[in-house]
Amino acid sequence: MTLTFAVPAGAGLTGRRRGPGLRGTLTGWAFAGPATLIVVGLSLFPAVWAFFISRTKWNGIAEPENIGWRNYERLAQDPDLIAAAQHTLLLTALFVPSSIAAGMVIAIALNQKIRLIGFYRTCIFVPYVASAASTGILAGYVFNPQFGGVNEVLRRVGLPPQQFLEDPAQAMIVVCVIALWGEVGFTSVVYLAALQDVPRELIEAATVDGASRWRIFRSVTLPQLRPVTLFTAVWQTITALQLFDLIYTTTRGGPMNSTQTIVYYVYELAFQTRRLGYGAAVAYLLFAVTLLLTALVIWRSRRSGEEAF
């Protein structure tokens, strides 16, 4: 009995596939080229142009004056920038751990086999896909000191009404709560996907050995979630550092600049006081800090063997 094998046309004796060739490459770039140009035009070019603007004194109308690195030299001596950085760090310290903890707890609850679980998962994720601007506008009514729904609930239970977004001591906490309401759906979905990837064999083995549910979570499930926790920590930190639309639609940096973050400070410099050069320098400082923080976390995670990126 003789066996014969058909060799595809164009294939060599070694069975290697040929590359796409010049025609295939040109066809691929014909499809990807327009989108690539749009991405480069809307991201890379403005970033490079902003760097040149950061070395000038310019109000957007008159001829820009080249002043070298003086805008960057002023950064450490600007009290408003230092205050905005402190507010940003406070928001990050409140928001990131809370979003991780809340997302993990909600994901564990949504990982149970209960009725209408798909409906519950959708309800948790809907606030994330809603725009932050609409969330901020809605929250402005909910936390309104005069006719807001939260104060109405407090009155009914016998507690004094609060000023919320109009109180410098409460405004940042309320902004953090609003941000959590909009962002916790993201961390919940990420943790839910990670929980479903935890090997069932490990959990079953721990159960057979007599481990309690808390011990299984602490010793089996939680170590499996470390890469996901690292990823969500970096992602939510970047979200907190770049938070703008929620601040703009709720407090506009007030009251008494208590919620003025770095991004909102950049907006005020560039579009209200028309100090485009200095505003671009502050924006580049934020970009450098974000890039350095992300690179440091990625390097540390790869060194420890817990790659999340």
Q: Could you walk me through the main structural features you see in this protein, from its secondary elements to its overall organization?
A:
With 309 residues, this protein is mainly α. Helix content is 67%, strand content 1%. The protein contains 13 helices and two strands. Helix 3 (79-110) runs antiparallel to helix 10, helix 7 (171-196) runs antiparallel to helix 10 and helix 10 (226-241) packs antiparallel against helix 13 (276-303). Mean pLDDT is 87; it is low at 1-15.
Write the layout of secondary structure elements.
Elements: H1 21-53, E1 56-57, E2 65-66, H2 70-73, H3 79-110, H4 117-129, H5 132-142, H6 149-156, H7 171-196, H8 200-208, H9 213-224, H10 226-241, H11 245-250, H12 262-271, H13 276-303
Antiparallel strand pairs: 1-2
Major β-sheet strand ordering = 1-2
Structural class, by secondary structure, is mainly alpha
Secondary-structure element order, N to C: HEEHHHHHHHHHHHH
Got a strand count?
A: 2
Mean pLDDT: 87
Q: Roughly what percent helix?
A: 55-70%
| Count of separate DSSP helical elements | 13
Poorly predicted runs are: 1-15
| Gyration radius over CA | 26 Å
Largest sheet: 2 strands, antiparallel
Note the beta-strand portion: under 5%
Distance between the termini: 54 Å
Overall shape: it is: globular
